[in-house]
Amino acid sequence: MTLSFAAPADNAIDLNVISQDDLGNWLENQPAATKAWVLANGFSGRIGEALVVPDTEGQPRLALAGYGSTAARARGRFALAAAATKLPSGDYRITSGLPDDQAEVEALGWLLSGYRFDRYKSATPMRAHLVAPDGIDVAKVEAIANGEALTRTLINTPASDMGPPDLEKAARELAGAHGASINVIVGDELLKENLPMIHTVGRAANRAPRLIDIRWGGSGPTLTLVGKGVCFDTGGLNIKPGSSMGLMKKDMGGAAAVLGLAHMIMAAKANVQLRVLIPAVENSISDNAYRPQDILTSRKGLTVEINNTDAEGRLVLADALALADEEKPDQIISMATLTGAARVAVGPDLAPYFSDDANFVTALEASAAKVSDPVWRMPFHTPYESMIEPDIADLDNAPKGGFAGCITAALFLRRFVTDSNYAHFDIYGWQPSAAPARAKGGVGQGTRALLDAIDRILTP
Description:
It is a single chain. By secondary structure, the chain is α/β, with parallel strands linked by helices. It folds into two domains: 13-131, Leucine Aminopeptidase, subunit E, domain 1 (3-Layer(aba) Sandwich); 141-458, Zn peptidases (Aminopeptidase). 34% of the residues lie in helices and 21% in strands. It is built from 16 helices and 19 strands. Strands 6, 7, 8, 9, 10, 13, 14, 15 and 17 form a nine-stranded mixed sheet that branches. A five-stranded mixed sheet has the order 2-3-1-4-5, sandwiched between helices. The chain has a three-stranded mixed sheet with strand order 11-12-16, covered by helices on one side. Strand 4, helix 5 and strand 5 (128-130) form a beta-alpha-beta unit. The mean pLDDT is 97. GO terms for molecular function: manganese ion binding; metalloaminopeptidase activity. Residues 308-315 form the Cytosol aminopeptidase domain.
């Protein structure tokens, strides 16, 4: 689906965005009939309230959208979107009440409210359409909305229709839409190209493992995005219980996120040389599945002892990160639904990230606040390196003890990047319950903040 603003039109309905604190002043400047109608309908300006004020013929004359209080807005995001979904059919033009510095974020929230995942069941489309507010970058906001829609759809699609070949198809369509090049290494060719851990994790599945490699842009700083593309994770021979396997269609959420971000970057025609690497696999069970206590040799030459086949994401990412690092790009960023420990630490709404680069941190944190895409910095705590070093190999893919699981996973990945600036995002990729602009289901995290910060990250 395509998310876009309504075309400007003379018959667009004027929309007044009204906070609880400003309602009284607004009413004092309205005709008596309008004031009476608003009061009779109990409109108070709370977040999520919407009201149409009719003219003498019963047609919409103007509309009101509650914007809540400062404290209420601090408890959530996309306050305008909460009202937008309750407005009747029509095109709406914001005429008052929306702060200029929030216009872009709130307009984006309105667009995202129109997202529907309707591949398998019809869904009622959003009825209220927004004319883009004055002063916003329309093309950019629409690119962000559609990049986010791509991420959501890829995550929401079940593994029956989103295996490694399907993820490759989506990547090819994205590359084709933007004139990017794409190369895909499949099956046993992974061994010939020295990508052994991607092959090992995915070899037990009927749908062959692969590495997807997209390139775009001929000038500017170099940026490589690496996304975990585990299209379904049974846990391998360390099989997950059913309760833990239920959401494993989203274990390719990192791949979905970087493809969505890549769309945003390419649609915005950012001055960057972009590379996207996605190891796409299924972690399945068969007679040739890899086993606990196996020792794998990575692309980088580091050996890895397998102490849990359910810690597979870091294995496929490791080979992709080593490949990325060989070109020494200005920045490598990995995104993955990697550990349950990250969810325990910060819950589903925050995107934990790891970086030792002060410029990266400063730029990202400022952008995250600006675009309402919350992130939380976690430490690359070097003293924990000993926890990922077993007796008989260079690295342990699943340290015992249960402490600092997201940190040890990040430290594991960092071992495979030695010549480039590196940041890692351990995202959840799922909205557990519906919220303004975010339907229950797959969701992007950290990508809008990265897009906003990218110039400052790459050209400090």
